[in-house]
């Protein structure tokens, strides 16, 4: 938070700190899954799904497209359909992956405590 402006004092935060999400979760597929169905990757997530960033498409030839999300059964669409991210979803995932809080902190000098002599 040293370089944040405006600084937000206090300890109450709503949601995760995204400043370093690109380093902590560097997988684009994970980010896309999380945007489409947050509870599919984080069981008790309170984040709402951003399904408007995805398209439901009919599978061509029964095979999934390379961009299709690999969703667990409980979040998967009906048979013969797949969920594909829109360009906006891909751009948002790329932005999240670019977030790295890797600014070096300045060194604070350490002065050991000394006892005063009378």
Overall pLDDT: 84
The share of residues in extended strands comes to 5-15%
Shape: elongated
Distance between the termini: 43 Å
Q: Characterize the biggest β-sheet.
A: 2 strands, antiparallel
Element string (H = helix, E = strand): HHEEH
In total, the number of strands is 2
Radius of gyration: 22 Å
Number of helix segments? 3
Q: What is the SS-derived class?
A: alpha+beta
Q: What is the percent of helical residues?
A: 10-25%
Strands in their spatial order, largest beta sheet:
1-2
Unreliable stretches (pLDDT < 50, length at least 5) are none
Q: Would you kindly provide a written description of the structure presented here, covering whatever features stand out?
A:
It is a single chain. The model has no long low-confidence stretch (mean pLDDT 84). This protein has 118 residues and is of the alpha+beta class. The protein is elongated and about 85 Å long. It starts with 20 loop residues before the first helix and ends in a 20-residue tail after the last helix. It has a two-stranded antiparallel ribbon. The protein contains three helices and two strands; from the N terminus they run ααββα.
């Amino acid at each position: 938070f040293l370089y944040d402006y405006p600084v937000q004092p206090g300890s109450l935060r709503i949601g995760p700190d995204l400043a370093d999400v690109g380093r902590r979760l560097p997988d684009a597929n994970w980010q896309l899954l999380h945007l489409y169905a947050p509870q599919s990757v984080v069981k008790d997530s309170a984040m709402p799904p951003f399904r408007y960033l995805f398209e439901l498409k009919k599978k061509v030839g029964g095979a999934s497209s390379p961009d299709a999300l690999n969703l667990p059964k409980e979040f998967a669409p009906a048979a013969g359909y797949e969920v594909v991210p829109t360009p906006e979803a891909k751009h948002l995932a790329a932005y999240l992956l670019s977030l790295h809080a890797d600014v070096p902190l300045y060194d604070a000098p350490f002065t050991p405590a000394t006892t005063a002599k009378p």
